């Protein structure tokens, strides 16, 4: 069986450039002191909020929350101005139906929330700014810096709002993995965001958790574990959308597609996805703007 907790994968957190072990340790100590634990899985039967992006990781994560932990899940989908919106939305709709049938007592319809991020008024400027600093070491790991904080603060606010329907929620789940390289996908960021959530709600029972990288659960693993778990449980995650391009098929050759293909290889699971292009031998990078622009036009 695929282990969801106490599973250390092959990537060592200490080698990750987007993690700050000193800061994480300070935050862990603070939570321990403040509430007696760092984070813990909510009790079976509790209600939680989870992001449904339409990608394989968020889809698998929601399955795990229901199947392994018996949680009532309230997913949210952010319409943020993504270029592959219609494919991500189609994936969210597909799994909405799938989970509703399989877990009718635990799954709730997802809520689509319209929060453009980055702001459309400066998105082009931000792209240009990113190109200017691409050659500077680690600048790439900044991504769209406010995007994930905005997405997950919105999810938290949605969870909080459900109190109006007498649904008590104090845990929100992301599904970041050990190979995610942005600062706003890290375990350090997750803990920092958790602190922010607690402070602005004046409620230290609030938790923000990404199970695959949750060090308090003895975890730090990657896509292969999620792919294997989904395969074990007959969840057709190959129908989820990974590619950030506008093609109807997954391109197979952008960094996110490359990661997806690597995940299947490492999981030892045959990848049923149909791709538009063959897999590069080398990891494709976001720096190759010319190639990216040509691919967008084709
Ligand atoms: Zn792609």
UniProtKB/TrEMBL annotation:
Transmembrane segments: none
Enzyme Commission (EC) number: 6.3.4.20
Reaction catalysed by this enzyme: 7-carboxy-7-carbaguanine + NH4(+) + 2 ATP = 7-cyano-7-carbaguanine + 2 AMP + 2 diphosphate + 2 H(+)
InterPro entries per the UniProt record, alphabetical: QueC, Rossmann-like_a/b/a_fold
Gene Ontology terms for molecular function: ATP binding; ligase activity; metal ion binding
Class of the enzyme per the UniProt entry, highest EC level: ligase
Domain of life (superkingdom): Bacteria
Pathway(s) where this gene product acts: Purine metabolism; 7-cyano-7-deazaguanine biosynthesis
Keywords from the named record: ATP-binding, Ligase, Metal-binding, Nucleotide-binding, Zinc
Family classification: Belongs to the QueC family.
This protein's name: 7-cyano-7-deazaguanine synthase
Lineage: Bacteria, Candidatus Amesiibacteriota
């Amino acid at each position: 069986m695929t282990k969801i907790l106490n599973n250390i994968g092959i990537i060592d957190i200490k080698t990750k450039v987007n993690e700050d072990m000193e800061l994480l340790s300070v935050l862990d100590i603070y939570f321990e002191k403040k509430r007696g634990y760092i984070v813990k899985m909510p009790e079976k039967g509790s209600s939680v909020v989870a992001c449904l992006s339409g990608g394989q990781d968020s889809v698998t994560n929601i399955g795990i929350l229901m199947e392994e932990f018996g949680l009532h899940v309230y997913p949210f989908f952010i319409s943020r101005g993504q270029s592959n919106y219609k494919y991500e939305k189609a994936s969210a709709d597909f799994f909405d139906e799938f989970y509703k049938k399989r877990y009718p007592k635990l799954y709730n319809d997802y809520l689509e929330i319209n929060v453009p991020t980055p702001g459309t008024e400066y998105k082009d400027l931000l792209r240009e700014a990113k190109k200017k600093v691409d050659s500077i070491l680690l600048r790439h790991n900044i991504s769209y810096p406010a995007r994930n904080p905005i997405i997950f603060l919105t999810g938290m606010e949605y969870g909080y709002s459900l109190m109006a329907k007498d649904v008590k929620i104090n845990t929100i789940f992301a599904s970041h993995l050990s190979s995610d390289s942005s600062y706003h996908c890290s375990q350090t960021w997750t803990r920092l965001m958790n602190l922010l959530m607690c402070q602005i709600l004046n409620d230290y029972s609030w938790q923000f958790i990404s199970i695959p990288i949750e060090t308090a659960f003895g975890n730090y693993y990657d896509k292969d574990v999620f792919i294997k778990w989904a395969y074990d449980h007959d969840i057709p995650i190959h129908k989820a959308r990974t590619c950030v391009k506008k093609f109807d098929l997954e391109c197979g050759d952008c960094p996110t597609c490359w990661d997806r293909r690597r995940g299947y290889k490492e999981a030892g699971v045959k990848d049923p996805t149909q791709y538009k292009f063959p897999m590069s031998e080398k990891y494709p990078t976001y720096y190759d703007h010319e190639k990216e622009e040509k691919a967008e036009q084709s």
